[in-house]
């Protein structure tokens, strides 16, 4: 999941995942949300740059 956040500069992949209802994969929506929360925490810890890892 983190690779999506790191490489999806314009948000197009995220929009595609949501538009396709998380591809009906079990618990994928929860993982997607948790990954976003984790990435936002990284961004805060690293001065706001979401792509810094």
Brief overview:
With 53 residues, the protein is an all-alpha fold.
General description of the model:
The chain has 53 residues and is mostly helical. The chain has one domain. The chain contains three helices and no strands. The protein has helices at residues 2-7, 12-19, 28-45. It is flat, with a radius of gyration of 11 Å. The two termini are 14 Å apart.
Rg from C-alpha positions?
11 Å
What's the pLDDT, averaged over the residues? 80
Give the helix/strand class.
mainly alpha
| Helix run count | 3
Helix content class? 55-70%
The low-pLDDT segments are none
Total domain modules:
1
Index terms:
mainly alpha; 3 helices
Provide the fold topology.
Layout: H1 2-7, H2 12-19, H3 28-45
């Amino acid at each position: 999941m983190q690779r999506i956040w790191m490489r999806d500069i314009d948000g197009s992949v995220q929009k595609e995942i949501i538009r396709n209802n998380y591809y009906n994969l079990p618990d994928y929506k929860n993982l997607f949300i948790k990954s976003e929360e984790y990435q936002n925490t990284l961004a805060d810890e690293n001065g706001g740059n979401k792509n810094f890892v």
